[in-house]
Amino acid sequence: MPAAPVSSLLALQQCLMSYPNHSSSTSFTLIGIPGLEDAQFWIAFPFCTMYFMAVLGNITLLLVIRLDPSLHLPMYYFLSMLAAIDLVLTTSTIPKLLSIFWFQSHEINFEGCVSQMFFIHSFSTAESGVLVTMAFDRYLAICKPLRYSAILTGPTIAKLGLVAVVRGIAIVTPLTCMVTSLSYCGPHIIHHSYCEHMSVVKLACGDTRLNSIYGIMAATIMVASDSILITVSYMLILREVIGLSSREARLKSFGTCGSHIGVIMLFYTPGLFSFYTQRWGQNIPAHIHILMADLYLLVPPMLNPLIYGMRTKPIRERVLSLLWQKEIQSQS
Q: Where do transmembrane segments lie in this chain (predicted)?
């Protein structure tokens, strides 16, 4: 996993250097939430709260899994990957968004805009890949328990995580390079809170059909393939769980899988709504679309640690024990 951020930065740098026609003086203006400009100052407070909870929750999840040897298992390693990706997604967008809402800092230079777009889309794709590996993990744990440890070894887990990140980079890098090759000769005003791909492409004055076609095909194929793999995994899991003789075992299996299904719904539903609305949702008010796009990068990262923390007993007990120890130390 450590090589993934380095490779993503190298891929991004290569795209930016390949097209030197965009000078460092080129900049865009991010509107924020069109139609709600007067309310943005107050909207920033719940956004800031959600961002703080997302960062705190995911860092806590990473530390708890790192410090507790009993949690050094495949399921928790995949949770660590999910938490790390969520931290990248929120941190690449929310600080700038808050500066727009509170300090009227609307300007973003070309390199910063392209970098933000690259990290949003590549790590969103990577998160989808990690959700697939988590579904595979649950399938092995429930349907192939005797082979679970033999299949999901440490090197295999690392390779699965690396593949998820590299796939995201491989899909988004051509998209980023195509964006850097476009000419932007009109008003550089992005009607969005961050540099979403189509919001940037709409500012170009040349032919952008290739960008649109590639973006739609890449997103549709990625989401369709990942959704099919996840659905198949859970159909096999459901068949296996229904066949269990113990009611307690069935409830435990459903509880474990329920957390994952909840995370999947939180990730895909607003993401697909935002993606397709950007292209064909002309009848949907702009502020609704932009709010959904903003919440897509906030709500899942905020709720993922809470869902797993509340539904996963070892993590919940470990967090509570740490809090209890701190309380005893402060009283003494």
A: 41-64, 76-98, 118-136, 148-172, 213-237, 257-276, 288-308
Ranges of residues in the chain with a pLDDT under 70 are 1-14, 16-25, 244-246, 249-250, 252-256, 275-276, 278-282, 310, 323, 325-332
In whole angstroms, what is the distance from residue 24 CA to residue 112 CA? 10
108 three-class SS: strand
Q: What SS3 state is found at 275?
A: helix
- In angstroms, the Cα distances linking 36 to 40, 86, 173, 281, 285 are 6, 27, 33, 18, 11
Give tens-digit pLDDT for 228-255. Answer: 898 888 888 888 877 766 677 667 666 6
For residue 233, give the nearest of 126, 125, 131, 83 by alpha carbon.
131
Angle between helices 299-311 and 313-331 (to 10 degrees): 90
Q: What are the distances in angstroms from CA 85 to CA 19, 55, 235, 314?
A: 28, 11, 27, 22
> H or E segment at 189?
strand 189-190
- Are 98 and 30 within 8 A, CB to CB? no
- pTM comes to 0.86
Distances (CA, A) of 241 to 16, 74, 256: 50, 20, 12
Q: In 138-169, which positions are buried (b, 16+ CB within 10 angstroms) versus exposed (e)?
A: bbbbbeeeeebeeebeeeebeebbbbbbbbbb
Sheet holding 27-30, edge to edge: 107-109, 27-30, 189-190
What is the rounded CA–CA span in Å between residue 320 and residue 82?
22
